[in-house]
Structures are given as C-alpha cells and as structure tokens.
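Technical appendix A lists one of the benchmark inputs used to test multi-chain prediction within the project. The record comprises two sequence entries:
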Amino acid sequence: MKKILALLLASIMVLSLCSVSFAEDISVENAEAVWAEKWADVDTSKHVVINYMTTGDAPKTGANAEMLAQLNAILTEKVNAELNIVWISWTDYLANYNLRIASMDGTIDLIGSSTDWLDAWPNAKRGGFLELDKEMLEKYAPVTYATVPQEHWDVCTYEGDIYFIPEDNYSQWTNHGFAYRLDWAKEAGLENGCQTWDDLTTYVKYVKATYGDQLIALWDTDGTAYPAGGYICSFAKWRNIDGLASGAIWGGYLDDPYTINCLYLVETDKLVEYAKLMKEWDELGVWPTDVLSNTGADNRLEFRQGKTALEQHHTQTWTGLVSPLASTDNTMYLNDEDCDVGFYYWGKEAGYVTRDLVTHGVAAVSAASANPERTLMVYDLLRNDKECYDLFNYGLEGRSYAIDENGYRYTPDTYVADNDSISTNWWWGRNDALEIPSAAMNWDAINALYEEYDQIAVMYPYEAFVFDNTMVQSYINQCNEIYNTYMKYICFGQYSGTAEEIVAEFQDALRAAGVDEVTAELQAQINATYGK
Amino acid sequence: MTTINPKKVEPYSVKGSLRRKLFNSKTLILMCVPAIIYFIAFSYAPLPGIYVAFVNYNYRKGIFASPFVGLKNFDFVAKSGKLWTLTQNTILFNLAFILLDNLLAVTVAILLKEIQSKSFRKVSQTMMFLPYFISQVLVGLLVFSLLNSDTGFLNVILKGLGAEPLRLYKTGDPWPIIIILVHLWQKTGYNSVVYFAAIMGIDDSIIEASMIDGANGWQKIRYIILPSLKPTVVILLLFALGGIVKGDFGLFWNLVGRNPILYNKVDIIEMFVYRATVSDFNFSTASAVGLYQSLIGFILVLTVNAIVKKIEPDYSLF
C-alpha cells in the first residue's frame, strides 16, 4: 500500500514538474502542442461566430472576403468558430465605438481597444468588458497567457481583475511630431533636417516662398491637432498621464513624475512663446485662412501626393511616409526623385521620448458575449498561429503579398490595391515573433530613428496607475472643453490681443473649471499607488 | 342667391354607459390607435428611465441596479458656470426661430394662396419645400463653400471686384444672423404647408361673401384669413414653446462646429454638452441635462397654456 502511495505521489510530483517546465517554455513555436493539451477537453461541438469589433472603414476588396473565408475554414477546423469583423467607421468613431459597447446586445465578442486613444478603462469600469481571470486565460488563451509577462498583466488589472490582453510584443513608436519634406529642408540650408523649432520655422518660411503656389497649404489641418504640449515638451522633460481626457492636461516632470501638475499652468513662458510663434506661422500662411472650420481636408493624403509640407502624427505614420513603396498614394516620390521625408519628434531638443504603453493596443472580451471562451481561443490563434497570423495580417500569399529571398514581404507585380489588398485593423494582437518585415519600408531611415530613440527612451511612469474619476469627472470634462477651445486659439494663432493675454485667459478659465481640484485628486491617488 | 341647405348630421351619442360610449366612438378610437401606441411606446414607457440621471450607470447592472448618486450628475451643468448664459442663448435663438418661422410661414402661405396659376403655385411650393430635405451636414458644407475666406463663392466674387474678402469664419458677430437665415431658408417651405392647409380649409363662402361686401385683397387677409388662422398659430406656438430650451444641435454643429471664434457667440446647451462630454460618453450626465431642459419646457408650456386659457379658453391645449 505504502509503495503504491509513494509511487503515486512521485508520479504526481514528476507530472507537476513537467507541466511547470512546459509552461515556462510556451512560445509560438510549440503553440500547436500547447493548444492540443489545453483544449483537449473543451467542448467545441457547437459552431459559433465570433464578432470582432475594430475601428476603421470596412474594406470591399475580393481578397479580403477570400482571406476571411480561408481564415474561417482554419478556425472552424481548429476551434469550430468563425470570425466576423464589425467595423466602426472613422466618422465620430469614439462615440459610436462606446455606443456599440454600451448596447450590450451580444452582437460583439472580441473588442479592440486602447487605454490612450480608445476608452479602455472607462468601458472596463462601466461594466462593458468581461473580467478575465487567470484560470480562464491560462485555459483558453494559453500561449498568450504564457508569453505576456506578469508585470504587463498587472497594468491591465483593476481591483484584482484583468480586463484586457495587451499587445505587448510588437515594436512600434507612437510618439508624435511633425513629418516634413527633408529634401526641401536641405534646400533651405538645413543639412541635417529640422533639429529645432527654429529650424521648423526656417523650413516653413522657405517652403512658403519657394513652393507656396504649388501647395494646397503647408499644413492643411482641420485645427484639431494641438502641438502646444509637444512644443513645451521639446524643452521640458515632462510626461502627461494618458487616458484622463482627450486633452493631455495633467502629468509631471520626469525627474519627479509623482508630483502632479497641469502643464499649462506651470509652463506659462513656453506657452506664451509658442502662441507668439504660431501667430507668426498663421501670418505666414502655413495653414488655410479658415483653419478652424477646415473640416473637409485630408492632409495626410495630400502630403503623400506632395501637396502639403507638414503632417502632424506619430512615428509609425512617418514610417509609411518615408517609404516610397509603402503606399500607392505616396505619389510625391514619382513626381520628385529627390523626395525624402524627415521627422521632428516632440522631445528632440530636450533629448527624450517615452516608450509606448503596453496598453496602447489591447483586446477585451465584451461582457455581453455569449462565447467568451471561444473568443479567447480565437484570439490566441490570431495572435500566435503562424497560418492565421499571416492570413489575418498580410492576406493571401501570392496575391496580397509575396516573400523574397531575404524573407521580406513585398507586393507581387499582379497586385492591384483595389482588388488584392486586405485590411483587418488588427492593432491589438500583433506579435513580433511572427512578423514578416516589409520590403517596401525604408528600413535604413526607420532603423536609424529607432536607434536614436533607443538611446534616449524613458519608460512611461504611470503605467500602473488607473484613475478612479468618480469624484472629479465633471471637472475633467469642463477642463477638457476649455482646453479644446483655447488650444485652437493658441495653436493656430487665432487670437486677437497679445499672446500673454490669451494664455492668461486660458489659465483663468482652467482654474475656474476646477483644474486644481483634479490635480489634487490625482495627487492623492498617485500617492496611494506609488506610496509617495 | 342660393339657399344654403345644410345636410342633417346625426350627432354622436355621448350619453349612456361607458361601453355604449366606446362602442359609439369605435371608428374614432380606431383612428387614434396608432398615435396612442406611439405615445405609449416612445413617451410614456421610457419615463421610468429618467432614473438614469440619478445613478452612476453601469452597463451590466442596468439602470435600476446601478448605484444611486442623487443630484451628482447635475453638478456638471451647474459647475460650468455657463448654465444661465447657455439657457438664455438657447431660448433667445428659439424665440427668434418661432416668431420668424411663423411670421414668414403665414406670409408665404397667404402668398401661395393668392397665386392664381395652379402650376406656378405647385412649382414655387416645391422649390421652397426642397431645402427641408437636405441633410444639415450638407447644409453646413454648402454654407462653408459659400462663405469661406480662401475659396468661398462670396469672397471669390468680392476679390474679383477688387474688394476686401469678408473673413466670416474669423469673426463671431455675424453668426447669429447667418444661423437664423439658414434656418429660415431650410424650414419656411415646410412650415408654410400647415398654414396653407389651414387657409385652404377656410370656407370659400365666407371669402366670397366678403368680396361681395366690397372687401379688397388686403381687407380679405386682415379680416378673414388671419383671424381664421389664429387657432392654428396658437396651437403651434404652444407646441413650440415646449421645446424652447432644446436647441437645434444639427444646425448649430454643422454651421459652427468646433470653431470657438464662432461658437463663443452662438453657444447653446446642446453644443456645450456635446463638446464637454463627447470624450466621456456618460449617459447619466446627458440624461440629467435632458431632464433639466424638459422640466423648463414643461413649466413653460403649463404657464403659457394657463395664460392662453385666461384670454381665449377655446385656444388652450387643455
């Protein structure tokens, strides 16, 4: 009897040891085996449709339908499920996105989200997302669960529950700045491109004088992007807290990040300086006269076509602009063989950038989903299964893309974008382990900038901080409204009176709207989180 | 002279038991059924949902199980310090709309009635009616194409004539007038239909009699048509007053949008609430604002109705 018991105990120990070592080694390479083991006893007898919601405009190409058909055949075979994409088009996307989550009618299962540009935390707190416990993730999304480190799960956790899966193994930079025509900057005498805001001003002056007549505008903006924070952060090492409001109003200096302040109250001089500079740009004619009502413009497309000279967005967008073949819209390269695109990022003068949040892209399961288990299984496949990944991210091999002898992805000669391109806006489960680099990208320029970033990058200091806004949300809304109003005056030089006056007026309005109450509440909760 | 010989009409029996009364009015009741269902479904059934304005709404718990927070959701509007200015603006704009709408609609209806050629009347009526069907998004774009500084129709002409262009999108002052003009352009054709129908309903024999008595065109309008329109005007006015605190968001948003130079002159409650909460997506705050607007509208309707009842009991709503 003792013998049998000992044998039993020993074998249990050996088995558990095996499973421990097994868990540690999980990666995309042995994913098949992991799934075979973990999902062996999952009942998948009923065929289900998993509705995946993403922002963007639905593609209408034949390749896209074909790709989904092939993908669904694989998903059906592996987990008896198929995927349907629900698109939230870009017009008023945030309101429609939130509305779709709030409707809770069970018509969506998998939700692409983000803590900085889509309302991941507010939706989690309002009960829109399902809590994902560890057992559930380990069972139904085993590869993802094992490959995301514990500290990344921690930043997706609120009051003990995990609310979403981070896209934490994908290299990209989403820090903002100005993309500009490097070839024109060189003509203007800036051999190394724009290194400072003074260089940018030299650049816009030169371009206005030389190419002004050929362009729609230097920057055909609709007046809703506000580089004021970017200007100030080019001199002061500061980081704002993401996800509080659309405006980046609160944050702290990097040498003391847990002392919270409102950027626009502590950096008055720089803000005045910026307001003056933008008045100069306005008088120079950098943007259309009616910039604040210029809603019909598409500056990025116009930039690609060589009809504008500045585009304010992030590094990832710039990588597409600096690569002639990255988009068929990049016609500026066809018309001008010297064409080149540089990037002036916020923080360049002060010498720092903040690394991306691991929650810049996250995937959540709707609280109203009828099939949360199968949703997680499908997600695990889309993120970690080579075959599914290639289909879902690149489309049909031989039609949407081909692979060259160096292992780079390129578009075949027969490729016609209107017919052969695919789009799934899968920004919540990309995986460097399975990425195939694109031959269309200008890797020399991109890698040079990435190396520069790596030298100076700092971590986002508030990753573990989830703000409980119950007490001050109405103040935040007021401040955000004030911010959006005055930024339009300041960032596009649309004020009458002096720069000092408009900044003082802005600051008074912020104080009246309760900016200090929010700062105090943030400070109290930061102290509680970081034990200051 | 023809003798008027009215047809004998059997009056509805309003005597007897309730069942008898219902049975006797069955046709009328049947005709009312769609309207009754509409109001039950869209006005009375959702009433308990007002409660959402007093809770911290959680999607999964639903309206009634979400935590009660009292008047906290009303804080937001109160704290802005703009509530009174916004309410004032909204009411003034609506007053202008109501007065000018009715004035213009009555005038247009009378003019239409006076047009003798039937085909010309139809064509002009249709042309005035058309703007009503243009989406306000398009109206906003049309106005921008007309008025913008760089490529606007108006300014291209002004520049062609050697005049200084009008920078209308850089100054807020003309916008109250522009908004009212656009509103009138869009709505007059539609509004005049009701009055036109009322005028067509006036018994021709009265007008003929006045002509025989020697009334000229103006006197006919002054003493016959306008007094006959009075009940319609009063009823439409009472209806309009109920919504006087509710702004026409579509019109304002598409004409003025996110441009603070303009909206600081013409801000209404809806515009402010949209700007301040679009990034927050909070049903409870929005419902609180809606409730505030409805309450004021409700009080206004009751008050005005009471006044009307005092002066001319027949014209009051209830």
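Chain A has two domains: 16-171+358-420, 176-357+440-458. The CA atoms of residues 130 and 367 of chain A lie 4 Å apart. Comparable benchmark entries are summarised in Table A2.
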